[in-house]
Amino acid sequence: MGGSFNWPVTLESGGIVLRPIRYRDRREWTELRSRNSDWLAPWEASNPAPGGGLPDYRQMVRSLKSQAAQASALPFVITAWTPGRQSPAMVGQLTVSSIVWGSAMMASLGYWVDQGRAGQGIAPTAVAMATDYCFNNLGLHRMEINIRPENGPSLRVVEKLGFRDEGYRPRFLHINGEWADHRTFALTTEEVPGGLLAKWLREPHG
Question: GO CC annotations (predicted)?
Fold first, then answer.
């Protein structure tokens, strides 16, 4: 099974749109992150190097675009149609990263969503769309999501979608200034033969 890497792409379902992140998104992205700073701080990736900091917005987008050009990442923002707007509003970010080809055919996925839109099915829908694209269009075999054990909202996303809990990874990533434990969840294409999005939309959920 295999596919071809095409970028940029836009994915949409039920008014939720995944589209590539852009340099001109800086103002909207910065405002959204600022409004959610307390909500996101406990899960924020950090730089373990002494005195190390995170890239600014332009550096982040440049790095993500470079990774996409190398077929190793899909850098999306999550947007949603809302009444009174002529275009979808940004409500979060989703990045498929660490794409490995060859005999592995796998990737990792990370996401965050505006606190004011949490619990509305946006994150599960976005994760399902991105996973289906990786399985069906890129020909990947496995999607992995690593989550802090204390991150209840993200844990509910993978639980709703049926990602398999593969266990504990001590001190796995540098988060919010320290090496933090994570739990790993994964899904392979054989587990969702009809597609993850179809499964998510078909099953009742609250």
Answer: cytoplasm
Q: Which domain does 169 fall in, by range?
A: 11-202
Q: What does DSSP say about strands 142-147 and 74-80: parallel, antiparallel, or unpaired?
A: unpaired
Report if residue 136 sits inside a domain.
Answer: yes
User: How many domains does the chain contain in total?
Assistant: 1
**Coil vs helix vs strand at 188:** strand
Cα–Cα distances (Å) from 34 to 31, 85, 117, 171, in that order, read: 5, 21, 15, 27
Distance CA 184, CA 21 (A): 26
Say if 2 falls within a structural domain: no
Q: What is the spatial distance between Cα 98 and Cα 100, in angstroms, rounded to a whole number?
A: 6
- Look up the CATH number of the domain holding residue 96: 3.40.630.30
Question: Across all residues in the chain, what is the average pLDDT?
Answer: 93
Task: Assess if residue 98 is contained within a domain.
Answer: yes
- Residue 123 belongs to what H/E stretch? helix 122-136
Predicted pLDDT at 4: 80
Q: How do residues 82-120 score in pLDDT, each as one tens digit?
A: 877 788 899 999 999 999 999 999 999 999 999 999 889
Residue owning tokens 């690593």? 146
Encode pLDDT of 129-170 as tens digits: 999 999 999 999 999 999 999 999 999 999 999 999 999 999
Distances (CA, A) of 14 to 18, 183, 201: 11, 30, 10
Indicate whether 1 belongs to any domain: no
